[in-house]
Amino acid sequence: MSLIAIKEHMMSVKMASLSHLCSHFNAEPETLRCLLSHWIAKGKIRPCRLKSACGTKCFNCPAAQTEMYEWCE
Predict the structure, then answer these.
(1) What is the 3-state secondary structure (H, E, C) of the chain?
(2) Is the pLDDT of residue 1 over 90?
């Protein structure tokens, strides 16, 4: 997994959850957050918030599924 691989994948899917990225790259959430922070700082990826009700009412959604990222180009 590399920064370029993350960039290419995000360019193709446009939006992905942290859970999806972990599965796709077979990586731990903290590792991906660190790599995503590079693209966030460059303004190419932005973290997205799901609707306020998601993940807050029933507490059944794992955080990695509600943590979303969007390609901004």
Answers:
(1) CCHHHHHHHHHHHCEEEHHHHHHHHCCCHHHHHHHHHHHHHCCCEEEECCCCCCCCCCCCCCHHHHCEEEECC
(2) no
User: What tokens were used for 49?
Assistant: 């918030």
pLDDT at 45: 96
pTM: 0.78
| Cα angle for residues 40, 73, 8 (degrees, 5° grid) | 75
For the chain, give the number of residues: 73
Cα–Cα distance measured from residue 70 to residue 62, given in angstroms and rounded to the nearest whole number: 19
Q: Which residue has the tokens 């446009």?
A: 14
